[in-house]
Structure formats: structure tokens, C-alpha cells
Amino acid sequence: MTASEEASPATRARKIRKVTRACDACKAKKKACTGNIPCGPCSRRHLACTYDSAYNRGVALSPPPSSSRPKNHRPLREHGSSRSNPDPAPGAIQPLQSPSVLRSYWGPSSAHSFLGRVVEDLHASPSKPIAPAQDPDASATVSIFSYGDRVVPEVQLSDFVWPSQARAKSLIRRYFEFAAPTYRVLHQPTIHTLVQRLYQENSEGNRIGSQLDVASQAVLLLLLSTAAMFRVDEDGRMRDADEDGWRNSELYYAQAEHLLSLETGAPTLASVQARFLMVLYLLSSSRAQKAWFVFGTTVQLMMALGLHNRWARRHHEEEEDLVKQECQRRLVWCSYTLDKYLSVILGRPRLWHDEDLDEDLPTRVNDEDLTTRERRLSRRDCVMDAPVFHATLAQILTQAAKEPYVLSGLSDRTEVETIRGLCGKIAKWQAELPPFLSGVIQPSSLVPVFRRQLTVLQLARHHALMFITRPLLLLDYGQMWPEHRSSYRYHLHLCLTAAREALELILSFVREDELFPAFWYSQYIAFNALSIIYLYLIQVRRNRLPSAGLDFVRSPEHTLHADLDEPTLYRLSETAVTHLADATARNAPSWKYSVILQGLRHELARLVSPMDTGDAQATGPNELSHPVSERSPRPTEHSGEMGRREQQAEGNAVRDYDPDPNMLPTIFSGLDPAIDPVLLDPRTQSLLDTFIMGENVVLDFWPQLESLPISYPG
């Protein structure tokens, strides 16, 4: 049993005591206060703990003393009640009000009091610099299916008009070439035929769309809305849309939603396609809650139509239509892939289960080679390769998510071998990629759609490796199980390498001005990678993990020879976190990404004592002065050699580790948590304090951390 389980009823009662008064420091900074003297936050930060400000909620009771009383606190001065409009103390802890919400998100694994405290911190200190919290009065008018989502500017359906035919064709082309890299559920020639029909009716004197069913109209509108999130500049480069573009995008979406609300009769394939496109649009416009509910309806419609079971459909299909068959397969497997990411990001159960699917993967065939009667397979690079490989990687991710260690940490030494096996599957998956998706071809030489597919699969691979290996950051399992030390430290190195390479890839988007607000997937993976790096630096600083920078012998024979010294990782993460904040500035959950990452930064800065900041032993000033973009690039290994070289690296990776308490010296100069204005944002209360129990990070740290940004409305 844990210490918390063995606690007596009296102890538990003290832990949940309602705090009715915050100290002056916590009240000024709008932080949660423990209510005693000196309080927990003041004790940790060596601040004077006073209760001198006026108290207006009845009789001011003296705060109980804490177990230790430092010298820098002053006694309480009693005050009367003088103001007529009492306000609650900003730092006062309110009773938990969301246990049912927690259960609906994570079930039993999330029923922890420390998570409730974090949620209270998020509610008590909304972010004004990035996105204001939802107005309680306004939230009363928000649908339960959209609560917590980004509030978009209102558009009037009376303003809707179909774009010109030339404009529509341009947006459709942009969609297929750029906006849909791996979630390709449509047949491009069929869409072109629908566009022709749409505008042909107008030339014959009919109202545009009058001869198309509402589902087909909605499909076209959602393609237009997705493509309108981007624009092409005068140099032919893709850029984020301007305000007019985003307004038109929302107007197209609103019209599509309106049309689908009018749909009657039996559902069709187009009915499901339109709703799947709606899910992707909602995610791209920071409406994850509504996207989740629409996705549930979409999956149910697929099940009702029997799209998941090819044998069930055989009795109902009179004539084989290869285009329809491929679109059904694409829809099922793209939804399967998206389901895995939504499950992980939102912390909710999966809707698709492998045992329920009895449908082949989509055929790797280009749309122009697919007709209703024929599939012409060619040796050309195929645009459907990426969706298929994305789906197979999602299957590995599904297998990993079922492993108990992912949620609760490693409890048995055999789970180290489980991690090794899962990483081996990813190495095999990578070795099977075609050259244009493997990274051996310079991305700039690829056509736009292949370049987008390459980056999506690279991010997906980094995410899968991080997801599989990140529980290794919780404890030094190599010290716990010496016989697995080599494998443990190798895979810890693999985790950090994946996080670093993910951030470097995202920073390459920044250099090209291509980190678009609509790229929700890139933002999520950036948050993942930054969380890993910050927690790793914290754990090394606490002497709870070996340093990857010292652990691994670098040589040309090793695949894993990335620069993983702590100052380099910190410098990289600080660059990336700034750009992540910029890219998510108008997102509903953006301030929550910020508060969690700022909390991790704050914890890291708090661990650096003043005597360390002037010590320059670990890293020379010349190395620290080089920006990330100026470092020499690492050679790219051919994917076919990856598995063999990783095994060689693992066998020779480790040497004895001697923790150095001064590993992070000069890079932290100026990061004084007591005076740094960035770190003193009201939201930067050290979240790690609520995640730390005893000497170790709580074992379900990762699922709780991951679901925080968009699981709890502001």
C-alpha cells in the first residue's frame, strides 16, 4: 500500500480541509495557498508569509501553524470587516466540483486528489495574456457538446454564397495537394465530377447545388473550408490564411453543418465522409470537444452501414464498385488512425477496436488509376502509401496503449523487454517505408503532397517512440534492475532522441514559416516532446535519472549519437516553446499548453541554486552561444539499416554513471523563479509539486499531464 492509502481518517480529513484564507503572497499572485503559516508555497520559495491584508468573509481566524516555521515569516495582524462587497480570496482552494468529469475522461485511473488540485489551479488562474477564460454567464449558452472549445466569430448563413467555379477548383486542388496528407477518404476524380455538376446547374439557370444531395454539397463545402485555412503568397508558398480567409472558412463550415442537419432518409457513404471531414475541420479550428462528439456519430454511422465488416456488406451490394469499395476502406482506416490519436490526446476510450474490424487496408493505388471497374497498379510513387503506413503505425500505437506500464509505470522487469519489442516493431515499420517517405530523399525535392506526408509520418514515428518509452523517465529502472541497465538506458536515450528530433522538425517548420495554427497534430506532438525534455531535465537535476549526455559513448557506428547534453536540450526546448505559444495563440487550449509547460519550466528553474548559475564547468561558453540552427546536422541513416544499428548501439551504449549535481550551470543564468517576470505568471505555480509524491513522480503522471491541456475547459 502507498503512504496515502495507509493514512488515517484524521489525516485524510486534514488533507481535504477547505482553505478559507490565503496568505498575502499567494493572494497577490492568485496561487493556491495551503492556509497555514508559513504556507507551503512561501516555505518552498523562502518568502515571508504574512496574513496582513483585509479579510472580508466573516471573522478572520488565525491560520494554523505548519510543521516547520522559518525565520522569515511575520505574525498575523487581525483585521475587521470593512468592505461591503466581499470577494473570495483568489488563492483559496474551493471544493472539488468535477469528479464526474474526471471519471468520464479517464475512469478509475484519474480519480486522484492531486489532479483535482491541478484543475483548481487552472480554474483559479486563467491566462489573460493568451486566451481569457470562458465567461461563466456566456458558458450558460454554450452547447454541452462544445463547452471548453474555442469560441469562433459568428457568421451569418444569409451571407453564404458559393465561390466562383475557378476559386472552387483552386481550393479543391489545394486541399488534395496540401491540406489532406494522410487522412485521404475521398476519390479526387469523383470530387471533380461533383464540382462540374455543381456549376453546370448554375449555367443552366438552376440554383447552385439544387441537383446535388445535401451530403455531397456538405462534402464539397468542407473541402473548401479546410483549404481556405491556408493561402498562397506572391512567391507561391503556402501561408496561414488572413482574417477574411478564416471567416470564409468558417462560413463554408457553417453552411455544411446546416445542410447536414437537414439530411433525411437512409445514411449514405457521403453522409459519413462529410462528418469525418467535419471532425478534421473542428480539430484544426481548436474545437476538440465538439470534434469528439461528431466523431462518435461518424463511427456509429460507419458501423450502421457495415463499413467495418466486408462480409456483412457482401449480401447488400448488388454490383461491385471499386471506387466505392476503396473509399469505404479509406474511411474506416483513416477513422481508425484518428481514433487512436483522439483517444490518447483526450484521454478517452477508443471507439474502434481491432477485433471489430474485418476490412482490408486501402489498396495502394493513385486516384487517377482507380475507376469503378479497374485498379491500375503502377510503379510510380503512390499517394495512398502514407495513409496505409499511418494506419499500420496506429496499430502499433494501439498495442502499446494496451500495455499496463503505459499508465502505471513499469512494475515488472519483463516490461523492459516489452518496450524493446514495441520499438523493434517501429524500426521494422520504418524499414518498410518507400524511399520518398523514409527521409532518404531530400524533402525539398518532393512534390508538396509527398513532402507533407513525409513530415506527418516522421512526427507520427517520433510520437510513437515517445509514447512507448516515456514511462522510463519516471524512475531509474536501470538501477532497480541492474541486469536490464543497458536496455533501459538505451531506450531512455531513444526517448530523448525522438523528442529532440520532433522539436527540430517542428522548428524547421518555423524557419519556413509553416507552423500553421491549423496543424493541431504538430502542436500536440510539440507539447509531448517539450514535456519529455523538461521532465527529463528535472529528474536529472533531482539525481533521479542518469544523464544521457554522459551515459552514451558517441561513435560513427552508433545510430543514436545525437547531442543530448542537458544545456543543448534546454536551449532547444526554450526555442520551441516560444514558437508553440505563437502558433496556438488563438486556440482554446493554448493557455493550458502554456500553463503546464510553464509549470515544468518553473520547477526546473526552482531546482537551480544561485551557486550553480555561475559555474561553467559542464559546457563551454562557445558551445552555449551557438544557436540550435547552426549545429551540424546529423547524418541520416538508411531506414533499412535502422534495426541492426540500433541493436549494435544498445549493446555498447552504457558506461557507469556518476550523477553530477551541477550539470545545468550557465544555461540557467537569469532563471530565478523569484524574480523572472515570465515565470511569475499567475499560472506558473509549480505543477510538479502536485505530481510529486514522496521521492518519485507518480506513476500515472503521463496520462494525467497529457489530458490536461484540452480536457478541462478554462
Structural account:
The chain has about 725 residues and is mostly helical. It folds into three domains: about 20-140, no CATH class; about 155-370, no CATH class; about 460-710, no CATH class. The protein contains 30 helices and four strands. A two-stranded antiparallel ribbon has the order 1-2. A hairpin with a 2-residue loop joins strand 3 (about 690-695) and strand 4. Helix 8 (about 165-180) runs antiparallel to helix 9 (about 190-205), helix 10 (about 215-225) packs antiparallel against helix 11 (about 245-260) and helix 10 (about 215-225) packs parallel to helix 12 (about 270-285). It is globular and about 85 Å long. The model is unreliable at about 1-15, about 70-135, about 550-560, about 610-695 and about 710-714 (pLDDT under 50).
Number of strands: 4
- Please list the strands of the largest sheet in the order they lie side by side: 1-2
- What structural class do the secondary elements suggest? mainly alpha
Which segments are poorly predicted (pLDDT under 50) over 5 or more consecutive residues? 1-17, 68-134, 552-561, 609-695, 710-714
The percent of residues in helical segments reads: 40-55%
User: Main sheet, how many strands, which sense, barrel?
Assistant: 2 strands, antiparallel
Give the count of structural domains. 3
Count of DSSP-assigned helices: 30
Mean pLDDT: 73
Shape: globular
Report how far apart the termini are: 35 Å
Note the beta-strand portion: under 5%
What radius of gyration results from the CA coordinates? 27 Å
GO molecular function: DNA-binding transcription factor activity, RNA polymerase II-specific; sequence-specific DNA binding; zinc ion binding
Domain Zn(2)-C6 fungal-type: 22-51
InterPro entries: Stress_Response_Reg, XnlR_reg_dom, Zn2-C6_fun-type_DNA-bd_sf, Zn2Cys6_DnaBD
Subcellular location: Nucleus
